[in-house]
């Protein structure tokens, strides 16, 4: 007997889909647990002592030493001063990356100019080069300008982000109709007005993702600030946290307490911009259906 309106084939298909759906859910749950474990382990290390971490087997429950580890960390480094420096650098860098990269991506995506393909191919080539290759020429340029030791030296190298230009170019090509730009040109809109009034409102999800990407990169940058920031009062957070690692007897609980506090601004930025990215993706899915 089968339910009214169903055939034996449909019942068999439903029975076949249930194991597949169950296995997919199990796989996703396992993937989430694996992804979340490093964050949970950071909290465990930050709330316990280093001696508890060294135990065999290590302690896997939350402790009561978080405030003690935070106080020890604050006495060792200028945490809030370094965080303020990092917030300023990461915020300014993110805003300028969004403007510069979106402007370049709009030109690559919707305008035909001499050398466009060659320049875009060179851009793709730059994406494949390790960032460490640019440290020496960047330092020479910054030293000639007189920015060595200042926070200003951290911003210009990150502005023309090759990945950001590539990402927004692909997004603009598929998300901004040529007919809409043609109509704007007929109405007398120039290049910048087409970019500012038409293109930017239509690529908010792409900009939200790039904002998260640029902010996290600027926040976690370590090598370039370590090289160019020579004044102790101008170090960024990652350089300051690295000072907690000593050659012998490193207090890993204190280090993890600093890492935990340093993760809070990134979580705030992610929660702000992820809404726009997810909302835009959901809106596109609804329109496509």
TrEMBL record:
CDD domains (UniProt xref): TM_PBP2 (cd06261)
Keyword Ligase among UniProt keywords: no
Keywords in alphabetical order: Cell membrane, Membrane, Transmembrane, Transmembrane helix, Transport
Subcellular location: Cell membrane
Transmembrane segments annotated in the record for this chain: 24-44, 83-106, 118-141, 147-168, 195-216, 254-274
A Pfam family it matches: BPD_transp_1
Keyword Mitochondrion attached: no
Membrane topology, as annotated: Multi-pass membrane protein
InterPro entries linked to this entry: MetI-like, MetI-like_sf
PANTHER family: ABC TRANSPORTER PERMEASE PROTEIN MG189-RELATED (PTHR43744:SF12), ABC TRANSPORTER PERMEASE PROTEIN MG189-RELATED-RELATED (PTHR43744)
Identification of the protein by name: Carbohydrate ABC transporter permease
Organism: Streptomyces doebereineriae
Taxonomic classification: Bacteria, Bacillati, Actinomycetota, Actinomycetes, Kitasatosporales
């Amino acid at each position: 007997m089968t339910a009214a309106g169903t055939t034996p084939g449909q019942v068999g298909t439903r029975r076949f889909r249930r194991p597949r759906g169950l296995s997919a859910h199990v796989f996703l749950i396992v993937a989430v647990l694996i992804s979340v474990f490093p964050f949970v382990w950071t909290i465990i290390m930050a709330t316990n002592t280093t001696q508890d971490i060294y135990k065999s087997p290590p302690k896997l429950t939350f402790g009561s030493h978080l405030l003690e580890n935070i106080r020890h960390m604050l006495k060792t480094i200028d945490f809030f001063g370094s965080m303020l420096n990092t917030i300023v650098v990461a915020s300014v860098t993110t805003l300028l990356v969004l403007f510069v990269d979106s402007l370049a991506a709009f030109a690559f995506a919707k305008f035909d100019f001499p050398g466009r393909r060659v320049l875009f191919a060179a851009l793709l080539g730059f994406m494949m080069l390790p960032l460490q290759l640019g440290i020496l020429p960047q330092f020479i340029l910054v030293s000639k300008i007189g920015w060595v030791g200042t926070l200003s030296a951290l911003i210009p190298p990150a502005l023309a982000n090759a990945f950001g230009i590539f990402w927004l170019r692909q997004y603009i090509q598929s998300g901004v109709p040529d007919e809409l730009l043609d109509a704007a040109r007929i109405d007398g809109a120039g290049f910048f007005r087409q970019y500012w009034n038409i293109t930017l409102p239509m690529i908010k999800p792409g900009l939200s993702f790039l904002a998260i990407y640029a902010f996290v990169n600027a926040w976690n940058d370590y090598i370039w600030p370590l090289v160019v920031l020579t004044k102790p009062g101008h170090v960024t957070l990652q350089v300051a946290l690295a000072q907690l690692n000593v050659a012998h007897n490193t207090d890993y609980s204190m280090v993890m307490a600093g890492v935990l506090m340093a993760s809070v601004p990134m979580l705030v930025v992610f929660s702000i911009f992820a809404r726009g990215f997810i909302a835009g993706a959901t809106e596109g899915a609804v329109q496509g259906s």
